[in-house]
């Protein structure tokens, strides 16, 4: 007897979507639901996970465990499945920023003596004024106006 299987895809090639639509229904774009036996599920998931490319896919199916289901993933995702004493938990990973930040100046060091007159406990209550800022050396105009 078959069990319920749910597969969610993101940015996968059309051939993957076509293969999934042969075995499952697609109630919403990228979301596939179906009932199949374990052998068909393993073969289908193997084909999907081998060909996701730059995309990602998640498969959930019923299982005889504490949670009653298993989560399988393929491709790069911010969410990772961790096994914690037999329970599958989801860990959120920090996004990786791929920015070229060479033009940014280094942050100034904090004053060694503290905030002085700007100390919240002082009567003046004003923040300290830095003589120089790290932005003084930056040009006022964009050196490459065509990049935007």
Describe this protein's structure.
With 148 residues, the protein is of the alpha+beta class. It has a domain at 3-92: Alpha-Beta Plaits, CATH 3.30.70.240. It is built from two helices and seven strands. It has a five-stranded antiparallel sheet with strand order 2-3-1-4-5, with helices on one face. Strands 6-7 form a two-stranded antiparallel ribbon. Strand 2 (25-28) and strand 3 (31-36) form a beta hairpin. It is elongated, with a radius of gyration of 27 Å. The N and C termini lie far apart (58 Å). The model has no long low-confidence stretch (mean pLDDT 80).
Quick tags:
alpha+beta; elongated; CRISPR-assoc_prot_Cas2_sub; Type I-E CRISPR-associated endoribonuclease Cas2e
């Amino acid at each position: 007897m078959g069990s319920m299987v749910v597969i969610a895809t993101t940015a996968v090639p059309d051939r993957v979507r076509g293969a999934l639509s042969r075995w499952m229904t697609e109630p919403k774009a990228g979301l596939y639901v179906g009932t199949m036996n374990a052998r068909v599920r393993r073969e289908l998931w193997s084909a999907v996970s081998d060909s996701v490319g730059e995309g990602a896919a998640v498969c959930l199916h019923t299982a005889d465990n504490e949670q009653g289901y298993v989560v399988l993933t393929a491709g790069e995702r911010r969410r990772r499945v961790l096994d914690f004493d037999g329970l599958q938990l989801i860990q959120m990973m920090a996004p990786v920023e791929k920015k070229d930040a060479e033009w940014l100046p280094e942050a100034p060091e904090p004053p060694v003596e503290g905030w002085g007159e700007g100390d919240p406990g002082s009567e003046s209550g004003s923040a300290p004024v830095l003589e120089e800022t790290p932005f003084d050396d930056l040009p006022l105009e964009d050196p490459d106006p065509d990049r935007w």
